[in-house]
Amino acid sequence: MKYTVSIEIALPLEKVAQLLADPAHLPMWLRGLVLHEPLHGTHGHVGTKSRVVLQTGQQQFEGTETVTRREPEDLSAIPSGSIVHFEREIVGKGMWSAARERLTEAGPEKTLWTSENEYRFSGVLMRLVGLLMPGAFRKQSLQHMQDFKAFAEQGKDVREEAEG
User: Fold this and answer.
1) Contact (Cβ atoms closer than 8 angstroms) between residue 9 and residue 152
2) pLDDT of residue 162
3) Which residue from 18, 65, 93, 161 puts its CA 20 to 30 A from 54's CA?
4) Distance of alpha carbon 86 from alpha carbon 155, whole angstroms
């Protein structure tokens, strides 16, 4: 299963890339995040493996994320016209996924975030989920992007929503 989602964020490319790459901000916009801890390597850098635990309703997912691409490596001085790439693979019980994130300038003080996602399922249960609910994966990816946009532009924290 493959799909692509995108969203425009009213901030410059460099700022969006830095916010997206900063692990301290993950709980503020990644709805359902229970844990994201590097097992070895530096968060967000190529080759880093992290344990990831997400909670969606009563379901908990645990997997291992491997960062496969980050360009440019240094996000502090991104040249105008650049494309920023963040790519990762996640392996969990019955599932493998890859996310290929691209950030591009969409105008002055605007960034387009495009996310290409691919899922492969093994095991009867996960294959059924993939067949019966493909829209749920796309919807969740878009929700994460909308949550990031609200965090980046307005400082909204998804944890405050959950409490109130």
Assistant:
1) yes
2) 61
3) 18
4) 22
CA dihedral 103, 55, 44, 5 (to 10 degrees): -20
Domains held by the chain: number: 1
Both tokens of 76, joined, read: 């502090």
Q: Interhelix angle for 13-21 vs 134-154, to 10°?
A: 110
Domain membership flag for residue 84: yes
pTM beyond 0.85 = yes
Q: How many residues does the chain have?
A: 164
Label residue 140 exposed, middle or buried (CB < 10 Å: 0-12, 13-18, 19+): middle
Among candidate residues 110, 32, 97, the one with its CA nearest the CA of residue 63: 97
* pLDDT confidence of residue 136: 82
The residue range of the domain holding 89 is 2-31+70-159
127 has a pLDDT exceeding 60: yes
CB atoms within 10 A of CB 149: 20
Residue 161 pLDDT grade (very low, low, confident, very high; cuts 50, 70, 90): confident
In angstroms, the CA 5 to CA 113 distance is 8
Give the C-alpha distances (Å, rounded to integers) separating 69 from 8, 102, 118, 138, 148: 22, 11, 16, 22, 20
pLDDT band of residue 122 (cuts 50, 70, 90) is confident
